[in-house]
Protein backbone atom coordinates (compact mmCIF):
# COMPACT_ATOMS: atom_id res chain seq x y z
CA UNK A 1 0.00 0.00 0.00
CA UNK A 2 1.18 3.53 -0.73
CA UNK A 3 2.14 5.74 2.17
CA UNK A 4 2.22 9.52 2.12
CA UNK A 5 6.00 9.62 2.56
CA UNK A 6 7.55 11.50 -0.36
CA UNK A 7 9.86 9.45 -2.59
CA UNK A 8 11.81 12.67 -3.27
CA UNK A 9 14.55 12.58 -0.63
CA UNK A 10 14.91 15.89 1.22
CA UNK A 11 17.25 17.05 3.99
CA UNK A 12 14.38 16.53 6.44
CA UNK A 13 14.14 12.80 5.69
CA UNK A 14 17.27 12.26 7.78
CA UNK A 15 16.01 13.99 10.93
CA UNK A 16 14.67 11.81 13.76
CA UNK A 17 10.87 11.44 13.67
CA UNK A 18 10.45 12.31 17.35
CA UNK A 19 12.28 15.63 16.93
CA UNK A 20 10.18 16.56 13.90
CA UNK A 21 6.95 15.80 15.75
CA UNK A 22 8.06 17.83 18.78
CA UNK A 23 8.95 20.79 16.55
CA UNK A 24 5.58 20.42 14.81
CA UNK A 25 3.75 20.49 18.15
CA UNK A 26 5.50 23.75 19.11
CA UNK A 27 4.92 25.32 15.67
CA UNK A 28 1.22 24.37 15.62
CA UNK A 29 0.64 25.71 19.12
CA UNK A 30 2.26 29.02 18.19
CA UNK A 31 0.16 29.26 15.03
CA UNK A 32 -2.97 29.06 17.15
CA UNK A 33 -1.69 31.71 19.56
CA UNK A 34 -0.97 34.17 16.74
CA UNK A 35 -3.76 36.23 15.24
CA UNK A 36 -2.12 39.17 13.53
CA UNK A 37 -2.65 38.85 9.74
CA UNK A 38 0.91 39.92 8.91
CA UNK A 39 2.54 37.43 11.32
CA UNK A 40 0.40 34.61 9.94
CA UNK A 41 1.23 35.63 6.38
CA UNK A 42 4.91 35.40 7.35
CA UNK A 43 4.32 31.95 8.88
CA UNK A 44 2.57 30.82 5.70
CA UNK A 45 5.45 32.21 3.64
CA UNK A 46 7.94 30.34 5.80
CA UNK A 47 5.95 27.12 5.27
CA UNK A 48 6.07 27.62 1.49
CA UNK A 49 9.83 28.23 1.68
CA UNK A 50 10.23 25.08 3.78
CA UNK A 51 8.56 23.07 1.00
CA UNK A 52 10.68 24.74 -1.68
CA UNK A 53 13.88 23.59 0.06
CA UNK A 54 12.84 20.09 -1.02
CA UNK A 55 12.68 21.11 -4.69
CA UNK A 56 9.82 21.86 -7.06
CA UNK A 57 8.55 18.28 -7.38
CA UNK A 58 8.38 17.89 -3.61
CA UNK A 59 6.60 21.24 -3.22
CA UNK A 60 4.01 20.31 -5.87
CA UNK A 61 3.33 17.00 -4.13
CA UNK A 62 2.85 18.97 -0.92
CA UNK A 63 0.35 21.25 -2.66
CA UNK A 64 -1.61 18.23 -3.85
CA UNK A 65 -1.88 16.98 -0.26
CA UNK A 66 -3.65 20.23 0.66
CA UNK A 67 -6.44 19.57 -1.83
CA UNK A 68 -8.93 18.16 0.72
CA UNK A 69 -9.01 21.61 2.35
CA UNK A 70 -10.65 23.39 -0.57
CA UNK A 71 -14.28 23.01 0.60
CA UNK A 72 -13.33 24.72 3.84
CA UNK A 73 -11.51 27.48 1.96
CA UNK A 74 -14.64 28.08 -0.14
CA UNK A 75 -16.99 28.02 2.85
CA UNK A 76 -14.88 30.32 5.02
CA UNK A 77 -14.15 32.59 2.05
CA UNK A 78 -17.83 33.03 1.17
CA UNK A 79 -18.81 33.37 4.82
CA UNK A 80 -16.36 36.22 5.40
CA UNK A 81 -17.25 37.91 2.12
CA UNK A 82 -20.85 37.84 3.33
CA UNK A 83 -19.97 39.30 6.76
CA UNK A 84 -17.46 41.74 5.20
CA UNK A 85 -14.73 40.62 7.59
CA UNK A 86 -12.01 39.82 5.05
CA UNK A 87 -9.02 40.07 7.37
CA UNK A 88 -10.72 37.73 9.85
CA UNK A 89 -11.28 35.18 7.08
CA UNK A 90 -7.71 35.54 5.86
CA UNK A 91 -6.39 34.88 9.39
CA UNK A 92 -8.42 31.65 9.68
CA UNK A 93 -7.42 30.39 6.24
CA UNK A 94 -3.72 31.26 6.53
CA UNK A 95 -3.55 29.58 9.92
CA UNK A 96 -5.35 26.48 8.64
CA UNK A 97 -3.20 26.09 5.53
CA UNK A 98 0.06 26.73 7.42
CA UNK A 99 -0.82 24.29 10.23
CA UNK A 100 -1.92 21.50 7.89
CA UNK A 101 1.00 22.25 5.56
CA UNK A 102 3.58 21.95 8.34
CA UNK A 103 2.04 18.71 9.59
CA UNK A 104 1.98 17.29 6.05
CA UNK A 105 5.65 18.23 5.72
CA UNK A 106 6.47 16.00 8.70
CA UNK A 107 4.39 13.16 7.23
CA UNK A 108 6.02 13.55 3.81
CA UNK A 109 9.54 13.41 5.21
CA UNK A 110 9.10 10.55 7.69
CA UNK A 111 8.95 6.85 6.88
CA UNK A 112 5.94 4.90 8.13
CA UNK A 113 8.14 2.54 10.15
CA UNK A 114 9.79 5.49 11.97
CA UNK A 115 6.41 7.03 12.72
CA UNK A 116 5.05 3.72 14.04
CA UNK A 117 8.15 3.38 16.23
CA UNK A 118 7.39 6.78 17.78
CA UNK A 119 3.77 5.74 18.43
CA UNK A 120 4.94 2.48 20.03
CA UNK A 121 7.34 4.46 22.23
CA UNK A 122 4.62 6.95 23.23
CA UNK A 123 2.25 4.07 24.03
CA UNK A 124 4.74 2.34 26.34
CA UNK A 125 3.16 3.77 29.54
CA UNK A 126 -0.06 2.04 28.45
CA UNK A 127 1.45 -1.43 28.82
CA UNK A 128 0.03 -1.74 32.33
CA UNK A 129 -3.45 -1.46 30.76
CA UNK A 130 -2.74 -4.34 28.40
CA UNK A 131 -1.45 -2.34 25.42
CA UNK A 132 2.01 -3.94 25.40
CA UNK A 133 4.41 -2.70 22.67
CA UNK A 134 4.63 -6.17 21.12
CA UNK A 135 0.85 -6.45 20.90
CA UNK A 136 0.63 -2.99 19.37
CA UNK A 137 3.23 -3.94 16.76
CA UNK A 138 1.29 -7.12 15.87
CA UNK A 139 -1.92 -5.08 15.60
CA UNK A 140 -0.30 -2.54 13.23
CA UNK A 141 1.04 -5.35 11.05
CA UNK A 142 -2.33 -7.13 11.00
CA UNK A 143 -4.23 -4.01 9.89
CA UNK A 144 -1.74 -3.22 7.13
CA UNK A 145 -1.82 -6.83 5.91
CA UNK A 146 -5.58 -7.22 6.00
CA UNK A 147 -6.60 -4.00 4.20
CA UNK A 148 -5.67 -5.34 0.72
CA UNK A 149 -7.14 -8.75 1.61
CA UNK A 150 -10.47 -7.14 2.53
CA UNK A 151 -10.49 -4.90 -0.56
CA UNK A 152 -10.04 -7.98 -2.77
CA UNK A 153 -12.78 -9.81 -0.97
CA UNK A 154 -15.16 -6.89 -1.27
CA UNK A 155 -14.56 -7.05 -5.04
CA UNK A 156 -15.33 -10.79 -5.02
CA UNK A 157 -18.51 -10.28 -3.00
CA UNK A 158 -19.62 -7.59 -5.45
CA UNK A 159 -18.83 -9.84 -8.42
CA UNK A 160 -20.77 -12.80 -7.04
CA UNK A 161 -23.70 -10.51 -6.25
CA UNK A 162 -23.75 -9.23 -9.82
CA UNK A 163 -23.63 -12.81 -11.12
CA UNK A 164 -26.88 -13.56 -9.32
CA UNK A 165 -28.83 -10.32 -9.42
CA UNK A 166 -29.58 -7.60 -11.94
CA UNK A 167 -29.66 -5.02 -9.12
CA UNK A 168 -26.74 -3.20 -7.53
CA UNK A 169 -25.63 -4.78 -4.26
CA UNK A 170 -25.67 -1.50 -2.25
CA UNK A 171 -25.31 -1.91 1.50
CA UNK A 172 -25.93 -5.65 1.46
CA UNK A 173 -22.26 -6.35 0.61
CA UNK A 174 -21.45 -5.10 4.09
CA UNK A 175 -22.99 -8.12 5.81
CA UNK A 176 -20.73 -10.77 4.18
CA UNK A 177 -17.79 -8.35 4.41
CA UNK A 178 -18.24 -7.87 8.16
CA UNK A 179 -18.91 -11.55 8.68
CA UNK A 180 -15.69 -12.40 6.82
CA UNK A 181 -13.77 -9.93 8.99
CA UNK A 182 -15.12 -11.64 12.11
CA UNK A 183 -14.16 -15.08 10.75
CA UNK A 184 -10.70 -13.86 9.79
CA UNK A 185 -10.27 -12.48 13.29
CA UNK A 186 -11.09 -15.90 14.80
CA UNK A 187 -8.77 -17.77 12.45
CA UNK A 188 -5.93 -15.28 12.90
CA UNK A 189 -6.32 -15.58 16.67
CA UNK A 190 -5.92 -19.36 16.42
CA UNK A 191 -2.91 -18.97 14.15
CA UNK A 192 -1.32 -16.50 16.56
CA UNK A 193 -1.91 -18.78 19.52
CA UNK A 194 -0.43 -21.71 17.63
CA UNK A 195 2.68 -19.65 17.03
CA UNK A 196 3.29 -18.74 20.66
CA UNK A 197 0.57 -16.15 21.30
CA UNK A 198 0.51 -12.38 21.23
CA UNK A 199 2.57 -12.08 24.40
CA UNK B 1 -6.42 -12.53 24.53
CA UNK B 2 -5.39 -13.17 20.94
CA UNK B 3 -9.05 -13.07 19.96
CA UNK B 4 -9.48 -9.57 21.36
CA UNK B 5 -6.38 -8.40 19.53
CA UNK B 6 -7.35 -9.83 16.16
CA UNK B 7 -10.93 -8.55 16.39
CA UNK B 8 -9.66 -5.05 17.14
CA UNK B 9 -7.14 -5.20 14.29
CA UNK B 10 -9.56 -6.63 11.75
CA UNK B 11 -12.20 -4.01 12.51
CA UNK B 12 -9.59 -1.26 12.24
CA UNK B 13 -8.89 -2.65 8.76
CA UNK B 14 -12.64 -2.71 8.06
CA UNK B 15 -12.95 1.02 8.86
CA UNK B 16 -10.08 1.68 6.45
CA UNK B 17 -11.59 -0.46 3.70
CA UNK B 18 -14.98 1.23 4.05
CA UNK B 19 -13.26 4.59 3.56
CA UNK B 20 -11.24 3.39 0.57
CA UNK B 21 -13.98 1.87 -1.55
CA UNK B 22 -15.06 4.62 -3.89
CA UNK B 23 -18.57 5.80 -3.19
CA UNK B 24 -20.50 2.65 -2.43
CA UNK B 25 -24.12 3.33 -3.37
CA UNK B 26 -25.51 2.85 0.11
CA UNK B 27 -29.01 3.85 -0.82
CA UNK B 28 -30.41 4.62 -4.24
CA UNK B 29 -28.24 7.29 -5.80
CA UNK B 30 -26.75 8.58 -2.55
CA UNK B 31 -23.03 8.07 -2.95
CA UNK B 32 -21.56 8.52 0.51
CA UNK B 33 -18.36 7.20 1.97
CA UNK B 34 -18.99 4.43 4.42
CA UNK B 35 -16.20 5.29 6.83
CA UNK B 36 -18.37 6.55 9.67
CA UNK B 37 -20.51 3.45 9.14
CA UNK B 38 -17.38 1.49 10.04
CA UNK B 39 -17.09 3.50 13.27
CA UNK B 40 -20.71 2.68 14.13
CA UNK B 41 -20.23 -1.03 13.37
CA UNK B 42 -17.14 -1.14 15.60
CA UNK B 43 -19.32 -0.11 18.51
CA UNK B 44 -22.42 -2.15 17.72
CA UNK B 45 -20.57 -5.38 16.86
CA UNK B 46 -17.46 -5.32 19.05
CA UNK B 47 -18.90 -3.46 22.04
CA UNK B 48 -17.65 -0.39 23.87
CA UNK B 49 -14.04 -1.17 24.82
CA UNK B 50 -12.96 -3.23 21.83
CA UNK B 51 -14.80 -0.90 19.43
CA UNK B 52 -13.06 2.19 20.78
CA UNK B 53 -9.67 0.44 20.67
CA UNK B 54 -10.23 -0.58 17.04
CA UNK B 55 -10.95 3.06 16.13
CA UNK B 56 -7.86 4.25 18.05
CA UNK B 57 -5.72 1.70 16.20
CA UNK B 58 -7.11 2.95 12.89
CA UNK B 59 -6.39 6.59 13.85
CA UNK B 60 -2.83 5.70 14.92
CA UNK B 61 -2.13 4.29 11.46
CA UNK B 62 -3.68 7.36 9.84
CA UNK B 63 -1.48 9.64 11.97
CA UNK B 64 1.55 7.52 11.08
CA UNK B 65 1.04 8.43 7.43
CA UNK B 66 -1.28 5.92 5.77
CA UNK B 67 -3.90 7.64 3.55
CA UNK B 68 -6.80 5.70 5.02
CA UNK B 69 -9.33 8.43 5.75
CA UNK B 70 -12.08 8.78 3.16
CA UNK B 71 -10.84 10.73 0.15
CA UNK B 72 -7.34 9.35 0.65
CA UNK B 73 -6.46 11.71 3.48
CA UNK B 74 -3.91 10.82 6.13
CA UNK B 75 -0.83 11.87 8.03
CA UNK B 76 -0.46 14.24 10.97
CA UNK B 77 -2.00 17.00 8.87
CA UNK B 78 -5.56 15.73 9.26
CA UNK B 79 -5.25 16.38 12.99
CA UNK B 80 -4.40 20.03 12.27
CA UNK B 81 -7.34 20.48 9.88
CA UNK B 82 -10.91 21.65 10.50
CA UNK B 83 -12.33 18.12 10.84
CA UNK B 84 -10.07 17.20 13.77
CA UNK B 85 -13.08 17.28 16.11
CA UNK B 86 -14.71 14.43 14.21
CA UNK B 87 -11.50 12.39 14.41
CA UNK B 88 -11.25 12.89 18.18
CA UNK B 89 -14.93 12.03 18.41
CA UNK B 90 -14.58 8.75 16.44
CA UNK B 91 -13.31 6.53 19.30
CA UNK B 92 -15.75 8.13 21.77
CA UNK B 93 -18.59 7.57 19.31
CA UNK B 94 -17.69 3.89 18.95
CA UNK B 95 -17.42 3.56 22.73
CA UNK B 96 -20.82 5.16 23.36
CA UNK B 97 -22.46 3.12 20.58
CA UNK B 98 -21.00 -0.05 22.07
CA UNK B 99 -22.04 0.97 25.57
CA UNK B 100 -25.64 1.58 24.49
CA UNK B 101 -25.64 -1.76 22.64
CA UNK B 102 -24.36 -3.58 25.73
CA UNK B 103 -26.86 -1.97 28.10
CA UNK B 104 -30.10 -2.55 26.22
CA UNK B 105 -32.09 -5.73 25.74
CA UNK B 106 -33.90 -4.44 22.67
CA UNK B 107 -33.73 -6.41 19.44
CA UNK B 108 -30.34 -6.01 17.69
CA UNK B 109 -31.77 -3.97 14.81
CA UNK B 110 -33.45 -1.40 17.05
CA UNK B 111 -30.63 -1.33 19.59
CA UNK B 112 -27.90 -0.95 16.96
CA UNK B 113 -29.76 1.81 15.12
CA UNK B 114 -30.35 3.67 18.37
CA UNK B 115 -26.73 3.11 19.45
CA UNK B 116 -25.49 4.43 16.09
CA UNK B 117 -27.69 7.51 16.31
CA UNK B 118 -26.64 8.27 19.89
CA UNK B 119 -22.93 7.47 19.45
CA UNK B 120 -22.23 7.86 15.75
CA UNK B 121 -24.30 11.01 15.30
CA UNK B 122 -25.06 12.63 18.68
CA UNK B 123 -21.72 12.20 20.39
CA UNK B 124 -19.68 12.48 17.20
CA UNK B 125 -21.32 15.75 16.18
CA UNK B 126 -20.69 17.33 19.59
CA UNK B 127 -16.95 16.73 19.10
CA UNK B 128 -17.04 17.64 15.41
CA UNK B 129 -18.95 20.87 15.95
CA UNK B 130 -16.68 22.01 18.78
CA UNK B 131 -13.67 21.20 16.57
CA UNK B 132 -14.99 23.16 13.60
CA UNK B 133 -15.95 26.09 15.79
CA UNK B 134 -12.39 26.27 17.20
CA UNK B 135 -10.53 25.63 13.94
CA UNK B 136 -12.66 27.91 11.75
CA UNK B 137 -13.27 30.51 14.47
CA UNK B 138 -17.07 30.29 14.28
CA UNK B 139 -19.69 30.25 17.02
CA UNK B 140 -21.13 26.85 17.97
CA UNK B 141 -24.49 27.43 16.20
CA UNK B 142 -22.66 28.50 13.04
CA UNK B 143 -20.46 25.39 13.17
CA UNK B 144 -23.53 23.24 13.83
CA UNK B 145 -25.13 24.70 10.71
CA UNK B 146 -22.08 23.67 8.66
CA UNK B 147 -22.03 20.16 10.15
CA UNK B 148 -25.73 19.78 9.37
CA UNK B 149 -24.75 19.05 5.76
CA UNK B 150 -23.63 15.56 6.80
CA UNK B 151 -26.74 14.76 8.80
CA UNK B 152 -28.92 13.09 6.10
CA UNK B 153 -26.07 10.77 5.05
CA UNK B 154 -25.26 9.84 8.62
CA UNK B 155 -28.92 9.11 9.40
CA UNK B 156 -28.96 6.63 6.50
CA UNK B 157 -25.74 5.06 7.81
CA UNK B 158 -27.20 4.61 11.29
CA UNK B 159 -30.13 2.66 9.82
CA UNK B 160 -27.75 0.55 7.73
CA UNK B 161 -25.57 -0.13 10.78
CA UNK B 162 -28.73 -1.40 12.49
CA UNK B 163 -29.61 -3.66 9.53
CA UNK B 164 -26.10 -5.07 9.22
CA UNK B 165 -25.90 -5.74 12.96
CA UNK B 166 -29.26 -7.48 12.85
CA UNK B 167 -28.22 -9.68 9.92
CA UNK B 168 -25.02 -10.63 11.75
CA UNK B 169 -26.93 -11.54 14.89
CA UNK B 170 -29.24 -13.80 12.88
CA UNK B 171 -26.53 -15.53 10.87
CA UNK B 172 -24.03 -15.93 13.68
CA UNK B 173 -25.41 -14.91 17.10
CA UNK B 174 -22.06 -15.58 18.79
CA UNK B 175 -20.31 -13.08 16.52
CA UNK B 176 -22.03 -10.14 18.15
CA UNK B 177 -19.43 -9.56 20.85
CA UNK B 178 -21.32 -6.52 22.17
CA UNK B 179 -24.08 -8.90 23.28
CA UNK B 180 -21.86 -11.78 24.37
Overview of this structure, please?
The complex is a heterodimer of chains A (about 200) and B (about 180). Chain A has helices at about 15-35, 35-50, 55-65, 70-80, 85-110, 110-120, 135-165, 175-195. With about 200 residues, chain A is mainly α. Chain A has two domains: about 10-110, no CATH class; about 125-195, no CATH class. In chain A, helix 1 (about 15-35) packs antiparallel against helix 5 (about 85-110) and helix 4 (about 70-80) runs antiparallel to helix 5 (about 85-110). The model of chain A has no long low-confidence stretch (mean pLDDT about 90). Chain B has about 180 residues and is mainly α. Chain B has one domain: Arp2/3 complex 21 kDa subunit ARPC3. Chain B is built from seven helices and two strands, in the order αββαααααα. Chain B has helices spanning about 1-20, 35-45, 50-65, 85-105, 110-135, 140-145, 150-170; strands at about 25, 30. In chain B, strands 1-2 form a two-stranded antiparallel ribbon. In chain B, a hairpin with a 2-residue loop joins strand 1 (about 25) and strand 2. In chain B, helix 1 packs antiparallel against helix 2 (about 35-45), helix 1 (about 1-20) packs across helix 3 (about 50-65) and helix 2 (about 35-45) packs parallel to helix 4. Chain B is globular and about 45 Å long. Residues about 25-30 of chain B have low confidence and may be disordered.
Amino acid sequence: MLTLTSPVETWAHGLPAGAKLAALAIATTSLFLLDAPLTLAAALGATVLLYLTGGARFALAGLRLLRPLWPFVVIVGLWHLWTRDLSGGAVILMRMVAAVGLANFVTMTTRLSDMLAVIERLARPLSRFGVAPRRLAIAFALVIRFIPVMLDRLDEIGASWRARSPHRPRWRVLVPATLAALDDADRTAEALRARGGAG
Amino acid sequence: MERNLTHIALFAALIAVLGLIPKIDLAAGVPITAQSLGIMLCGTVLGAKRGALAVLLFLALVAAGLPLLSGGRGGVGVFAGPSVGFLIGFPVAAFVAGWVMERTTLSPAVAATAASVIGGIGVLYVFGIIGMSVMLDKTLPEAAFLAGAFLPGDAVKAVIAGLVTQSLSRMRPASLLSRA
